[in-house]
Every structure is written in structure tokens, then in C-alpha cells.
Automatic annotation (TrEMBL):
Residues 144-436 form the SAM-dependent MTase RsmB/NOP-type domain. It comes from the Bacteria. It comes from Thalassobaculum fulvum. S-adenosyl-L-methionine binds at C252, A253, A254, P255, G256, G257, K258, D273, D299, D315. This is MFS transporter. Pfam families: Methyltr_RsmB-F, NusB. The gene is sun. Belongs to the class I-like SAM-binding methyltransferase superfamily. RsmB/NOP family. Transmembrane segments: none annotated. The active site is at C368 (nucleophile).
């Protein structure tokens, strides 16, 4: 194919090359997208518009990966050889441009062909051209008619169907297609900062505004007035009620959003994490905010305390499937067995947290997972096996009157299909437990 690109289109191809590198980083090297974005030197060198396009392209490709893979496979007479994984990733990006982002066919196809050739896969140039031309002719109607769940790995989609039913699972998956807004927790004066940032104050107290990819440039960031935190993730710390003067232990605390909430509200916090680098990141984050907390590198499943804790926040390691709208790489970095494996760890963490708790003390157990095995099932197991532990139900007024976020058992259970009128919410689970 003749290269008919104009100069502006040639510049855009640099953004496609970066998007390709990022996608390969996630799918081939299993690098979280946030880390790949931060580490890619070429991304920072792109003009703002091209940098935004590269980020959008790779994120959208991951959001719709199951869809585009199915459509690509329909266009192939036989599967691509393993050695041509590079070609498949280029096809994935170009298919997303054509079928989801609405990029002009000549730009998407020509750039993909050029990228295949530049990566040393000349024998696949004709195939790339043929597949993309066919997708351009036939794919738009097909992708529109596909269930949203088909964009996810089968194991994850099947699990959501079993847990939530077909209709809710489909709505949850569809919510993952939407670029989320920017959620902000402030140290003080939410109304004032909402005005300065052009944000809305949500019923729960979180600030929300559009996200343009330039967090550091926003008013108040450099002086440490606020930090980025999804409204759902901000709820567990609020569920302790007034915390001024209380001693609270934050287990698995890094990167420190909940620690910051508690300290800003006047609590005396011990932040614990088993990873020294992650704990150092927490300390840097608190430093930017002008906040401080005691810290300890320790395994929360085995550690001890000199004095029992009044309250413990346990944001346990999990599969993070509730964060897919913010982290579209999550479905493709996790394995089917991960939730069950993490559930074993969560049981150990809960058991030790209860041991660290003073009689009458509160344990807030939470995860950013939508998998029941990583939330309500862990609480049920704890209540059945640990004497002297009871659930303290969460009330609607504690979550800004948003009663739909409270389960029949009185726990916080948010789903990404909820609160669409407010801009959505991450999937999150929290249960308030009291040691009697």
C-alpha cells in the first residue's frame, strides 16, 4: 500500500507507536498500565494532543479487548502464529480505532500497516490490510450488537453472572467502557475547593470533576490541599464516624489515601504495610499533603501491637475487579484462580486484625473487588469462626443518603453500574465489625 499520509498523520503515528508499546507492556510483560505509562519516555515527549490520544487508544483497547479479539478472529482463516503476537496487538489497536473511536479508516489502516512493517513483520502486511479493511466494512454493526460482558475474560464475566444475574452483570460490564471522572478528597473546605477546581461536591463529601490527564496542574495539588481518591474508596474511613484523637491502625495502608483521610480528620494513625517501598511512597504522599503518621513495615497477617487498637482499617489485597473503569488492564492481568487465593490471605488478615483489636473496638474490612469470595463470603466465614465478633450495619445517612450502596446485610456494596447520574462509582465492599 502506498504511504499517503500527510505530515499531521505522520506525527500521529508516533502516538500509535507509543500506544503499541504500552499495550505490549500490559499484555506481554504483564506490567500494570499505570506503571507502563509512568515508565515510557516517549509518552512524555509527545505533544499534548498526541499523548492524550495514545493514552485513550491503549485504555480503550483494553476496555474492549474481548470484543476486538472476537472480531479479529472472525476475519482470520487460521489463528495467527505465536510469533506474530506483535501483529495481533497492532490489529487490536487499529480495530479499536476503527470500531470504537471512529478514526478515519485510511489513518487507522495505513498506520497499522506501517507499524507492522516497522516492527519487522513484512510477511503480515497484506493480512493486516485485509483484516482491517474487512473490519471497516463489517465490524461496526457487530461490535454494537455484542454483549458488554463479551469484552471481558470469560472467567470474570461468568463469575459476575453467577453473583449478580445477567442484567446487572451486563450493566456492570458496560460501565467499564466509560472514562471515569476525577474524584478528589480534600483536607478541609470541600465547597471552597469545589469552586476553585470546577468540581461538584458529591453527597458523600467527595469532589468530582472531569479528568484531562493533568492532575498535577490543578489548583491545590502542589500545596497539598487534596489527593485523588474514588468516592467509594473514601467511604470506609468515613464509616468510623468522628475520629479526632482516636488511635487507629491502618493495615495494608499504602499508597495512603485512607491514612490521609484519618489523619486529616484528627486521628492518631499507625500505617502498616509489608512493602518498604510502598510505605515510603505513603510517607511521600503524606508529606506532600503536610500530614504525618507513624509507620511500620510489617506483615499484617502476623504482626503484633504493644497495646490493643481502638479501631483498625483493613483494606485487604484483592483482585481489584471493582476498579476496572479506572484500571482497564485489571481483567487481563488477573487469573481465574486469583480471587480464591487472595481470599485465603484475607481470612488470615481478618483473624489477626481481630486479635489486635481491643474489646469494643471496630474493624473496618474492605476490598475493591466485585467478587463475593473477596468480600461478603470472607465476613461470613469470620463471623462463623471467630468468637466475639459481630457486624454493625451501615446506615444510609453514613453514605450520603445513598441507600442503594448498602446491602441487605448492612454492608457497603457499590457496583460500577450504580449512580450513573452522578458519574458512576467504583465497585467496593466494606463491612464494619465490632469485637465484643
Amino acid at each position: 500500500m502506498a504511504d499517503t499520509r500527510t505530515a499531521p498523520e505522520a506525527k500521529v503515528s508516533a502516538s500509535r507507536s507509543v500506544a503499541f508499546d504500552l499495550l505490549r507492556g500490559v499484555l506481554a510483560k504483564r506490567t500494570p498500565l499505570d506503571e507502563a505509562l509512568a515508565a515510557h519516555d516517549g509518552l512524555a515527549k509527545l505533544p499534548d494532543r498526541d499523548r492524550g490520544f495514545a493514552r485513550l487508544l491503549v485504555a480503550t483497547t483494553l476496555r474492549r479487548l474481548g470484543h476486538v479479539d472476537r472480531l479479529i478472529d472472525k476475519c482470520l482463516d487460521k489463528p495467527l502464529p505465536t510469533k506474530a503476537a506483535v501483529v495481533r496487538d497492532i490489529l487490536r489497536l487499529a480495530a479499536t480505532e476503527l470500531l470504537v473511536l471512529g478514526v478515519a479508516p485510511h489513518a487507522a489502516v495505513d498506520s497499522a500497516v506501517t507499524l507492522v512493517r516497522s516492527r519487522g513483520f513484512e510477511p503480515f502486511v497484506k493480512l493486516t490490510n485485509a483484516v482491517l479493511r474487512r473490519l471497516d466494512r463489517e465490524g461496526r454493526g457487530e461490535i454494537i450488537s455484542m454483549p458488554a460482558l463479551a469484552a471481558l475474560p470469560d472467567w470474570l464475566a461468568d463469575g459476575w453472572r453467577a453473583a449478580y444475574g445477567e442484567a446487572t452483570a451486563e450493566a456492570m460490564a458496560a460501565a467499564g467502557f466509560v472514562e471515569p471522572p476525577l474524584d478528589i478528597s480534600v483536607k478541609a473546605d470541600p465547597e471552597g475547593w469545589a469552586g476553585k477546581l470546577g468540581a461538584t461536591v458529591l453527597p458523600t463529601g467527595t469532589l468530582r470533576r472531569g479528568f484531562d490527564g493533568r492532575v498535577e496542574a490543578l489548583a491545590g495539588f502542589s500545596e497539598g490541599a487534596w489527593w485523588v481518591q474514588d468516592m467509594a474508596a473514601a467511604l470506609p474511613a468515613r464509616l468510623f464516624g468522628p475520629v479526632a484523637g482516636r488511635r487507629i491502625v491502618d493495615l495494608c495502608a499504602a499508597p495512603g489515601g485512607k491514612t490521609a483521610q484519618l489523619v486529616a480528620a484528627g486521628a492518631q494513625v499507625l500505617a502498616v504495610d509489608r512493602s518498604k517501598p510502598r510505605l515510603q511512597r505513603l510517607e511521600r504522599n503524606l508529606g506532600r499533603l503536610g500530614l504525618s503518621a507513624a509507620t511500620r513495615v510489617a506483615d499484617a497477617a502476623e504482626m503484633s501491637l504493644e497495646n490493643p487498637a481502638e479501631a483498625i482499617l483493613l483494606d485487604a489485597p484483592c483482585s481489584a475487579t471493582g476498579t476496572i473503569r479506572r484500571h482497564p488492564d485489571v481483567p487481563w492481568l488477573k487469573h481465574p484462580e486469583d480471587p480464591a487465593k487472595l481470599a485465603v490471605l484475607q481470612d488470615r488478615l481478618i483473624a489477626n486484625a481481630v486479635r489486635l483489636l481491643a474489646p469494643g473496638g471496630t474493624l473496618m474490612f474492605c476490598t475493591c473487588s466485585l467478587e463475593p469470595v473477596e468480600g461478603p463470603e470472607r465476613v461470613a466465614a469470620a463471623l462463623a469462626s471467630i468468637p466475639g465478633l459481630r457486624r454493625e450495619p451501615i446506615r444510609p445517612e453514613e453514605v450520603g443518603g445513598l441507600a442503594e450502596l448498602i446491602s441487605a446485610d448492612g454492608d457497603l456494596r457499590s457496583r460500577p453500574d450504580q449512580l450513573a447520574n452522578l458519574g458512576g462509582i467504583d465497585g467496593f465492599y466494606a463491612c464494619r465489625l465490632v469485637r465484643t
